């Protein structure tokens, strides 16, 4: 902080420093001086609606909202006086009287900012007339409910929907005492444009918005919170898993995580918790009574199958530690052993993307053969809010329209090779374009713009180039175009780096006679897995399934595997190369074990003498692998 930007304030007789441009509230919070708020949130715009953060300024007869008042050098501020306490208490009484805030009957009792401030200001009664009307409750969403009776109209939900998720499903309707939170022009959540990210629920300071699944299953003081990484996709968002009796009750976005800063999507917040299937708690291997008797049987069957091809079918949630153990198991099984991915096609082996900050710097964003909303929803929200705020222009190059197409200036049916040609050959122009599209395309290409091309490893249904070839990547780099590659799957980037030379395409193994298949099902919920499992194992002599839940297609031999919430401590690599921690939030159910432990036990049973690697050695190996690939790409 330069000396010219430093300002000095006096708050409650205490000397405080800040910088120009900060509000009084920001400086006070940084200095540890408490000012109550309801509508304020550090990641959202300021509306100064609740009036709970009012402070006294020396020389000014009127109270000022600290959240919206810029601090000035030499200010003398009081944040805690008898006059302010009485003002805030009366303000709270008005809020309590306007709607139904009978706390003992509210699901958010104990986790409500309004209730907390009521206790804090010793509000034992309401001195004004109780006016609460009977308002509707919207329960049409499959994930959460909206009780208008608990709402204080702080508009946090509206702002987070617009400014963070970027869809603006919510807004205010009505005026005065009839004002309410509106959903898509007087519809309900069940039929709205809501993406079910749950951000509005997380920022709601009362019980107006609440998750259905954890409702009335535990007060905050009854839950244990653990910070971990989301298993939903390759973004690697930070999550806070709240548990009770070892069971995940509620999932929140981790506001301290630099990747997502508290934001998450339906996959991480809801879908990764709701499974609804019966757990496998004990080994189901012939007549074995536990791991000590199950492992020798598995060893015997695997040794008998070594003359034929043995397949280790992993899934994209396989952690780095489990990858190393998988590699050791493959080495122990011999040259006939290969590995594949059960839940997706064989990915390319790119180096990590340059970083998420490229989205914030780009003037024109190209989506080529990818659908971020489906595979990386949090990344899609970053794109959506930047384009909606007219901070960047969007060009979508896919065969079919995607959700983000509605925000695009141009929708072109182009493959990666054709997009690369646009930047390398200024005379190239795709056929079939109307005059308006041609004009926009030339304007984008000829101007002094920062371009960002986002692509993925999803296959092109028309058989064209799936991803940018090395020569295309070099051409884009020489043209000053940033290329962001989306890897699909939780740890696909790490799996490709550690097992790349042993990975084969699963489709090449379908229907073949195999000696054995070790299929890692875990807790993966993917519609492609049952079909892939059936195609892979239909002619296998021995099938060993590692699963957390009972299988739709029963296998004679099943070993119980810990779920994502029980795995770890372990690590995965997200799409920009950050190594993210996987922290167990509860103990494994029954005799279930983490995947790395199961693979290590199988390798040891088969005669492996290898020692387990720590994350430091794995991190060094990843860096060397990516460095070599970067050199080849150049």
Question: What are the defining features of this structure?
Answer:
six-stranded mixed β-sheet; 634 residues; five-stranded mixed β-sheet; alpha/beta; single chain; 18 helices
Summarize the structure.
With 634 residues, the protein is an alpha/beta fold.
Secondary structure elements and their pairing?
Blueprint: E1 6-11, E2 14-19, H1 24-30, E3 54-57, E4 64-65, E5 76-78, H2 82-98, H3 113-120, E6 137-138, E7 144-147, H4 156-165, E8 170-173, E9 180-183, H5 199-203, E10 209-211, E11 224-229, E12 238-244, E13 247-253, H6 266-271, E14 284-285, H7 291-304, E15 310-314, H8 320-333, E16 337-341, H9 357-361, E17 364-368, H10 372-375, H11 377-388, E18 393-397, E19 410-412, H12 416-424, H13 435-446, E20 451-456, H14 470-478, E21 482-486, H15 492-499, E22 514-522, H16 529-537, E23 540-547, E24 557-560, E25 570-573, E26 579-582, H17 595-605, H18 615-633
Parallel strand pairs: 1-5, 15-16, 15-22, 17-18, 17-20, 18-19, 20-21, 22-23, 23-24
Antiparallel strand pairs: 1-2, 3-4, 3-5, 6-7, 7-10, 8-9, 11-12, 12-13, 14-24, 25-26
Radius of gyration: 28 Å
Task: Choose one word for the global shape.
Answer: globular
Number of helices: 18
Are there runs of 5+ residues with pLDDT below 50, and where? 460-465
- Main β sheet profile: 6 strands, mixed
Q: Structural class, from helix and strand content?
A: alpha/beta
* Helix-residue proportion: 25-40%
Number of separate strands: 26
| Terminus-to-terminus distance | 39 Å
Strand content: 15-25%
Give, in spatial order, the strands making up the sheet with the most strands. Answer: 14-24-23-22-15-16
